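Much of our argument rests on the idea that a fold can be written as discrete symbols. Part of our work consisted of pairing the sequence of a single chain with a tokenised description of its backbone. The amino acid sequence and the backbone structure tokens for this protein are reproduced below.
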Amino acid sequence: MSRLKRYFADVPDLDVQITMRVVREAHTVEVTLLLPRLLLRAEETSADMYSSIDLVVDKLERQIRKYKTKIYRKFRQDGSLRDLIRGAEPENGQAFEEEELEIPIVRVKRFNLKPMDPEEAVLQMNLLGHNFFVFANAENHHVNVVYRRKDGTYGLIDPEA
């Protein structure tokens, strides 16, 4: 993880969560970097634990490089994400490469959020044949998302208040 230090300016509290799972000789490494106003996450699986770690760090480096240009162009005010990532401004007057800066949104869908519990939302999701479902949680009135995980179980995204 020390390879990633060079990309960041002085970050006082860098919260890094690393999870490793081994299932039938497959080593899965998941890394989540929680930065102020920024979340980076990568997961890789291989037959060797060290290979998985190298692959996940490579993936995080690609994410950081991809977002450097975007951060510089979108957040130009002081105290922004731009100050978090080292070298997020053009050097010697050169412009950054255009790296997928435009993300086209091809469809917008609007719907009413029906208050329900997460179990009912999972049933609705399955009835619709979707992989995720957005709903208003009847218990805490937050907008939540249930989703189907790769292993066939379900997840719930509940934002902090």
